[in-house]
Specification:
By secondary structure, the protein is mostly helical. The chain has a single domain, classed as TIM Barrel (Alpha-Beta Barrel). The chain contains 5 helices and 2 strands, in the order ββααααα. It has a two-stranded antiparallel ribbon.
Length: 125
């Protein structure tokens, strides 16, 4: 699950494959902002810089950046400002396709030749 920068298909079970869309702790808000009693809560600035650097690196390799944000964690004013800045960076990055995971999964199935191409939004060429 955390071993790739691109989605991949698991072996089929009963004729259907699961598309794994990788996640990573470095793209998750919890390690930075969740209080565990064992580490201090991080300031939004370093988290933002880490997310931007990781996003840019994954983009250079044509991978999929799958951020994980929990409303109860990211929902503080300073963190929401950080999230807005991150999304502005993403939106202004050329040739980026921002899509729900279901669309990414459907696209990956098309790329893998598993299904016919349905109508709907497509990633940039």
């Amino acid at each position: 699950m955390m071993d790739s920068l691109a989605p991949y298909l698991h072996p089929p079970i009963e004729g259907r494959s699961l598309v794994e869309i990788p996640v990573s702790w470095v793209l998750d808000d919890a390690p930075f902002f969740m209080f565990t009693g064992q580490r201090s809560i991080q300031a939004p600035g370093p988290a933002l810089q880490g997310w931007i650097t990781e996003f840019d690196g994954i983009t250079e390799t044509h991978g999929v950046t799958n951020f994980t944000f929990h409303p109860q964690i990211i929902g503080r004013p300073s963190r929401l400002a950080c999230l807005r800045e991150l999304m502005d960076h993403v939106r202004h990055t050329p040739r980026i396709w921002v899509a729900p995971l279901a669309e990414i999964s459907a696209h990956w199935r098309r790329v893998a030749g598993e299904v016919q191409e349905p109508p709907g939004p497509r990633p940039p060429a």
